[in-house]
Amino acid sequence: MKVVAGKALRSGPIPRKRKGMVYQKQILLETRGHRHLHDLTADVARIVHDSGVRTGTAHVFNVGSTGALGTIEYEPGLLEDLPDLLDKLIPPGRDYGHEQAWHDGNGHSHLQATLLGPSLTVPVADRKPVLGTWQQIFHLECDIKPRRRTIVVTVSGE
Amino acid sequence: MKVVAGKALRSGPIPRKRKGMVYQKQILLETRGHRHLHDLTADVARIVHDSGVRTGTAHVFNVGSTGALGTIEYEPGLLEDLPDLLDKLIPPGRDYGHEQAWHDGNGHSHLQATLLGPSLTVPVADRKPVLGTWQQIFHLECDIKPRRRTIVVTVSGE
Amino acid sequence: MKVVAGKALRSGPIPRKRKGMVYQKQILLETRGHRHLHDLTADVARIVHDSGVRTGTAHVFNVGSTGALGTIEYEPGLLEDLPDLLDKLIPPGRDYGHEQAWHDGNGHSHLQATLLGPSLTVPVADRKPVLGTWQQIFHLECDIKPRRRTIVVTVSGE
After folding, report:
1. Greater confidence, A16 or C45?
2. Which of A53, A74, B15, B54 is most deeply buried (CB count within 10 A of its CB)?
3. Which residues of A108-140 are buried (b: 16+ CB within 10 A; e: fewer)?
4. Within an 8 Å CB–CB cutoff, is residue B99 touching chain C?
5. pLDDT higher at B10 or C95
6. Contact residues, chain A, for B81 at CB < 8 Å
7. Does C26 touch chain A (CB under 8 A)?
């Protein structure tokens, strides 16, 4: 896994200390394909810190229709349980309407990603994301092949 | 489908160019009832453009407890696959507790909408929503009858 | 149920009337354990009113990996239907990988909470959350034991 974080989406210098600020960065992630979970918490925390925002929100978004975001206790058991659950509810297979048109074998990937959702917002307080001790921010690759993912983090507040 | 977009929720003139701005509009949607998906992407993009916000977020929200929002590759196969999936996981029927009290036949509609969720936030960069090429913003009608839906879009940033 | 709302996350006086403001409070909730739904709508509405924000968004977040948030018609039937649905899709049991490592019997709790999600954003207009008449903001306890929950509400706007 290579994580290339911090490429700015906006050009020009970013003011660090003023009211009502917005700070936006992207995280680049190379995934291993279907069922690959990755812990984004440290990257998001660093972007929040760099933003200078003390109180507000951090919005995290997966660009693309076959990846998802959420929070989970990031431990080895659940890293299998979550993909297992999604594969049980929305099994890989050829019976999806998406497959009839595109023949790319990832109908379940689209549905898994849509059900979990591409978007997560967490509070920011004291210049840090507010999360439980055993609550981490994850990215889940739902597509069947390794993908290069762009995750956009937007920190808003003051 | 009639889409009546752009009715302002706030009165008075809306300043277009300043720091830390908020811009809020609603999209009015007449749906065909259960399983009806509609692509909101162009409406949201136009509202983002009109807001003057260059960097920030756009929040999209379905008012009401039997409609949902999300992102999907908006192509004919998945437009059947997503309602099929929801009807498999949460089948229409009379066995819901909601039905015992209300007898309106839409217990599954409430649960489908709650599971998918009424709320989506997407990043804004360069005065546009940030989305993948094959990632669109959808509204899904979960209720059993055609409904007139109000979707509130709030663009925040600078 | 004891609800202790309004403990400030930020120190110092909170300015009430200016542009681009952010206002953050927490709601403390003592839950009864698995399947316990609680209506947060009045607490969120009060925090929105106190914020002085007229137009913007209110973000509501469950701190911890075994609680969830969303919207629902808060009536007795659905208060059973939603936990029933989650227990059908993600049954309590000992077969989860999480259980092998931790033996705390709440593998399903983590997965139910991750699937529903910890985060909800609603629009704010005229100093009130924008919700349907039969659409309320709920907290769902997914853990197997009573828990003391912290819910962070961040109101942003102007």
Report:
1. C45
2. A53
3. bbbbbbbbbbbbbbbbbbebebbbbebbbbbbb
4. yes
5. C95
6. 96-98, 107, 110-111
7. no
Nearest CA in chain C to B68: C71
Total Cβ atoms within 10 A of residue B4: 12
pTM for the full model?
Answer: 0.90
Can you tell me the distance from the alpha carbon of A111 to that of A93, in angstroms, rounded to the nearest whole number? 12
- Sketch out chain B's domains with CATH numbers: 3-10+21-157 (2.60.120.460)
Provide ipTM, 2 decimals: 0.89
Q: Do B81 and A97 touch (CB under 8 A)?
A: yes
Report chain C residues whose CB lies below 8 A from the CB of B154: 55-57, 123-124, 157
- Relative to beta strand A67-72, strand A136-141 is antiparallel
Chain B CB contacts of C75 below 8 Å: 98, 101-102
pLDDT at B100 over 90: no
Residue C8: what pLDDT? Answer: 35
C20 to chain B, any CB pair closer than 8 A? The answer is yes
Q: What is the mean pLDDT of residues B105-121?
A: 98
Q: Rounded to whole angstroms, what are the CA distances from A150 to A3, A98, B6, B74, B154?
A: 10, 24, 31, 20, 24
Residue range B3-56, pLDDT digits in tens: 444 333 443 444 333 467 999 999 999 999 999 999 999 999 999 999 999 999
Interface test with B, best of C23, C86, C111, C130 (most B CBs within 10 A): C130
How many whole angstroms separate alpha carbon B59 and alpha carbon B61?
7
Contact between B72 and A90 using a beta-carbon 8 Å cutoff? no
- pLDDT given for residue B78 in this prediction: 97
Assess whether pLDDT exceeds 50 at residue A14.
no
| Cβ atoms < 10 Å from Cβ of A46 | 15
Query: How far is C67 from C143, CA to CA, in rounded Å?
Result: 7
Residues of A in contact with B72 (CB under 8 A): 65, 110, 114
Written in H, E and C, the secondary structure of B129-147 is: ECCCCCCEEEEEECCCCCC
- Tell me what the mean pLDDT of segment C128-135 comes to: 98
